[in-house]
Model the fold of this input.
Amino acid sequence: MSAVPTINFREATTQEDNLIAQHFYQLWQDNNVAAESIRSDWLEIVLEFNQQARQNLYYKAFVAEVDGKVVGSVSCQLFAGLYPHILTEHYRRYGYIWGVYVDAAYRGQGIAKQLTSMAVDYLKAIACTRVILHASPSGKPVYDRLGFVPSNEMRLDI
Done:
């Protein structure tokens, strides 16, 4: 009988930014985005984004480790918004979760659920009034089980 590996969940360190960026890249590939559709400077873009989000948007990441190897990650921050902020913070202080990723060999073990829950808890702690995320088809059941509901976002592919 093989032993079930212990999964350790914790806040990511800044030294793990490259790994989190690699997870973000892999997330897109796992969702059938061809490598030629991803900018060649993707790593620099993610690293700069995370650095600026840490300074301005309370960015934080969490990871899951098995035997000292990071097998999953999630990023979260204040939602920067798409239009001018005229609503008060007690009414509209949204958090955004992105980059939920788990290595294929470790999926189906509740890792994405736990990482997402950690991100939600952090966003609650910084007084967010709502959490937003955009779910991949494979991630949607995870978020449904956590109580996320579809929103009124509408799309038109042109």
